[in-house]
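TICKET #2291
ISSUE: user wants both folds in one file
ATTACHMENT 1:
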Amino acid sequence: MGATMPEELVTTASQRAFFAQPPSPDLLVHSDRGGQYSGNACRALLHQYGAVRSQSRRGECDDNALPGTTQAESHWPRLKTEVLELRERAIFADLADVQASIAEYVGYL
């Protein structure tokens, strides 16, 4: 998690995930068309691990929907709501405070 979303943020998170749980052959990685997902470093990393890129069509956010469910992005509003419910105040002091709150929440799951 960061204040911005550069390609390095995506590649670092992906590398950590691949280290923790080596991907199965032909892992399918869904994303939108953001530059951080379609940049050279991200493409190279996915290729290195044999992952298949799957990007939504321009303007078609439903392309990222999980089959038989609502959009995958529907997870984010729930996470935000539940993280805020765990706090005494719905205000974060800084990025480090947000990161600690998300880490605590994910550990809770």
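ATTACHMENT 2:
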Amino acid sequence: MALRVIEIVTPRSDKDDVVRSLEEHRTDEGYVFWASPLERGEGISFRMILDVQDTENVLDKFEQLFAWTDKYRIVVYPAEATIPRLDKLASEDKNEFTPAPKESEPKKNRISREELYADVLDTTLLSRNYVILVLLSSLVAIIGLLRGNVAIIIGAMVLAPLLGPNVGLSLATTLGDKKLSMESLKTMTVGIALCFFLAAAAGLLLGIPHVTDELAARSVISYSDIILAIVSGAAGIVTVTQGVPTSLVGVMVALSLLPPLVASGLFFGAGMMPHALGAGMLFLANVICLNLAGVVTFILFGIQPLSWWDKEQAKNGAWRAAILWTLLLAALVVLMVYEGR
């Protein structure tokens, strides 16, 4: 299991209170900690090392104690290893006399809510780099689809600029975070519009002299595509919650958002409307399935706000969103049946 270091910077005058709080919770969570004075000012730094699965429980407790004032700062960063090993330290602690531990919250086999939020936010914010990435990946996908080159298309899939905002929307829905929801929707809308209109312009100017196998494959949608999108979306969210970005590459390839959108734009620009509609339906199915799988997976992994009031609000909103995505998916399936796909 991965390790995390939590650093708490406090005024030296509060040292005794912080030590008492750290000692009080150590028997529940099983971490070790030490303190060192800062070179400048009157601050002192407490560092604790613990398993990543314990991070959110510890952060929640100390956020309630410390985060209400700007005198404190809590920072989380990864640790590669610790010697002696953390389990050995925990077993040594058990040899000492300690009070019977209180019933603690269940361990979470994932990174903390704060780490997850920070990771997702990086791929959700609308920026110049994001716009450039959308344009470049769209051009790569256009070339790959027109040439029927699988390797080029996979390159566009790996760039996957549309994946981040969709994951951000799923997380925002689960946490009831309106600001993140609006930012995700704005970024996703801009990305989709840029990709589609660039592809439509290419279709209008270049035409589609020959419908390659790769283009044809993305002009139709089947029920297996829906199952693949749901499974890949859930796998992608699990990967995100584990903090293993390298594992996300395979999901980017399996859950392709960009190629069907580009194919729809190319067909639209070339005036091939039935093909454009089919590719558009495939893209829409992937978006719906990704968000549905994302919301449900985040709920199952226990992603929720800190306060009980926010938990209730977010829980209701998350289930409403899951029902909405389910209804949209059902409507899409009905449309597929109507068109005989």
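RESOLUTION: both attachments delivered.
EXTRA DETAIL ON ATTACHMENT 2: The chain has two domains: 3-109, 114-339.
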